[in-house]
């Protein structure tokens, strides 16, 4: 009897708890239904969002391609327009020094220099998006290094602009969709695919209407012969040597940057002064190298082998100096040019096939820099045909696997810096 009373006394709270849980479950069920309903897209709304994604992507692609074309147009204006009109033999020294001062002053005022690609991607992974901040200062910071002949490519700035545009397009689509939360995966994939398609269409539309864009060089295939196979080993060694030089130059440039840390205008000005002075003797150390590689491929037979090799070596060092002393940009296309120039110099000195030399030296250099053979091959296929893969693939593997001084330390610093900035700590820009 006592057990029954105890069971009744303890059973009442249990029953009350069960009733409370049932009520809470009944209360949560409409919430779940509302959430599910809020995340659904009707056919009409889905079509409207798809059209919006396509149009926003097209606008972003058109604008970014216009900015890229403006960078090369400004470069022609400075060097062919102003430089040609003045006719000064020392114009490279004047233009690069002035450009360095302008870059330093602008970035000191707005802190809008493009971030390296790895930092952009780290922030995208950590935050789910990216922003360049104010568009006009960021655009000017993208334009200046290319306009004044810096040994930097446009890919870093383009990556930041594309990531920022994708983030803004995604936010606009979520607002237009009127959803309670983010898109589901099933909704996101087709919408983002339409946005990418629109971006490509916008870039193509700009090129069709106005020309411009990214002037990528294209090279012929290397001949598949036993002699070419034998040449692959020394050519890989040459590419590895350039990768080692770039790694050492990066370490020295970072030390110099640390020494001049309190002088944000002096750093790019001194770099511009050194770049311009070197360009008086080796003019191809200037510029990203995207257009210049094709020019060099048509002129190299009339140039001494020593000048071609010296250009590749000097430009390799200046890519590291520019990127670490305020001339923000990307290293890929300038380094490809370094491999092309050095490879053509080897061909001029030895009689080896020029296309083989350029393909193998460039691939080994890019693989030594990235430490990622697949990535190196994808980049190199932008400039070299698939038929050169029998030589490029082993060059990429060897370049990535051979030890390069300082690359492990540089990767650790790069990853740490990307995580540090992506977490929201540290300076922005």
TrEMBL record:
Membrane-topology annotation of the record: Multi-pass membrane protein
SUPFAM superfamilies in the record: Clc chloride channel
First-listed, main subcellular location of the protein, grouped into a coarse class: membrane
Gene Ontology molecular-function annotations: chloride transmembrane transporter activity
GO cellular component term of the entry, any: membrane
UniProt-annotated location(s): Membrane
Keyword terms: Membrane, Transmembrane, Transmembrane helix
Low complexity biased stretches: 13-25
Chain positions covered by the region annotation Disordered: 1-35, 408-429
Domain of life: Bacteria
Identification of the protein by name: Chloride channel protein
Organism: Rubneribacter badeniensis
